[in-house]
Amino acid sequence: MNENRICDRLVKHGKILFHAPLELVRFTKDDAADYxxxxxxxxxxxxxxxxxxxxxxxxxxxxxxxxxxxxxxxSFSMETLVRQSESDIQRLMLEPEPLHRFVDxxxxxxxxxxxxxxxxxxxxASRIWQDxxxxxxxxxxxxxxxxxxxxxxxxxxxxxxxxxxxxxxDHYSIDISADVHVRRVFGRLGLTPMDATVDQLIxxxxxxxxxFPGLMDxxxxxxxxxxxxxxxxxCSGCYMKDLCPSANDRTxxx
Length: 254
Prior knowledge:
Blueprint: H1 2-18, H2 31-38, H3 44-53, H4 59-73, H5 78-82, H6 86-94, H7 103-120, H8 135-143, H9 150-162, H10 180-188, H11 198-208, H12 217-226, H13 245-253
Helix pairs in contact: 1-12, 2-4, 3-4, 3-7, 6-7, 8-9, 10-12
């Protein structure tokens, strides 16, 4: 069945990235900001705080926020951050220009996340994923942060496993993220209806590859971002074109 072949190819491309050598992860278009986000040794909280900001604005802008704080404060150490009051955090996120579309809400999440890292993890956010926890435990720990939903929590665990090569006891609970690109690609590949709900997408991925559903996340996102655009598709450049029913329909119509 094409469905099995489609799944196998997505998993194959996911494994290529998963087993690739560790290198600098590009979250933004700013080298200094990316170096801060990649510093899981001295600034693991930068990764956690940035991910919490990743909603309702472009990802590149959201992931820049920790570095913008560092520019304003002169440091992004936990010692510096815990000295800031909630009103300080709100002001830093608002002035001289807003760092987020929803300053009031997101500055509150930012402040509470700092406090949680300080109080629950002794100011060391890497304790969230240290000692090879189960994937469910890691996702749950992210979900304990206010403002973090399952999409962000599983995204965090997936990035840690895929990009930073952090070891987990298993990968069962690292789901696919219901990103607009992923949903579009799963629909066009015929794996889900085009109007599939978030839950349908998640459980479809679990059924297709239960050991590590999230392994298909980045390949699907990459296809959607680069070739399978909402209106103008570039099927000729996509490595799924020979299996994709939507690409075959377009070829037949042409």
